[in-house]
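Hey, I'm writing a tutorial for new members on how sequence and structure tokens pair up, and I'd like a real worked example in the thread rather than a made-up one. If someone can provide the structure for the chain below, I'll link this post from the tutorial.
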Amino acid sequence: MKILKFIPFFLLVNLAFTQEKKVIYDIINEISSERIEKDVNKLVSFGTRHTLSDTISKTRGIGAARRWIKSTFEKISLECNNCLEVIYQKNYFPKNKRRIVKNVWINNVLAIQRGSKYPNKYIIMSGDIDSRVTDPNDFSSDSPGANDNASGMAGVIEVSRVLSKYKFENSIIYVGLSGEEQGLYGGIGLAEHAKKNKWDIIGVLNNDMIGNIEGVDGIIDNYSFRIFSEPTPANETEKSIKKRRFYGGEVDGNSRQLARYIHTQVKQFMPNLNPMMIYRLDRFGRGGHHRPFNDLGYAGVRIMEAHENYNRQHQDIRIENDIQYGDIIDGVNFNYAKNLTAVNAINLASLGWSSSKPKNVKIGGIVEPSQD
């Protein structure tokens, strides 16, 4: 006679939770600083990735850079049995008086990993392809853009390598966006494309400068990073604004909640890092590619280093008064970039496995004491 052994339900739940935690730690360990360094060096090798730079050359300019990104995504897809749909998403922008001095197609490179259960629900990780020097309209000079933003773009590619080995219920999009330095044009184009095609976007994790640990203030910090998020959706209705007077929620918009989720995940699984919640859309007077999604009401945050070095941002390459200016490869700490890339990976994975959000949730009240 066989004796059946029954495992208590709470032990099954605990076992499942333990296995899920192990997978998260596996994902962290699979992120490679060596591969990130190799990809950053490759992006720098194109000389300039300015939005208006050469699109014909095989070795220089944004055209060569985006073709290399696309081919890299395609190679990754081959290794996972064509699990990624790799495409260009592009929009035409005519010249204007400011930073588009000639007509240009803004080409974004997308690698879409379809969810098994909710293919129209998307988590997006973005990095910027383009780079610039002091003059935003100078599309000829060398503009390595090593940290800003080859680091973020290399992070996106690395996360696609790792997460493409797993299956998710929701879809994940790994994307290189163009035109950021000229006016967030790539993000504008993709956000409008998402709205037109009725994408259900869970959240956007925009990575812009994730490799610098030495601030212009002299502080060296290899464990802190910032998560920028706006408090409430930019497109919320007048009705929603009025309701908030009675129910609260001034800092509880979808982007802020996404930031809190990321913060919580990091504290649990990467306690060696210091995630800093910044209660603003972005730096004062600055912008990033999460903003076009926020403008349309989608949840989106910016993930970036804690201490910026302005000698390495938007600068012509030069030595002046014994100070090195320019966004060169020496300014990137690849272990730090690895850690921030892992932050993205575990959050994309957790959200990729998440269930759908509840519908028709309401807040109510009655004039009697709570029984809870």
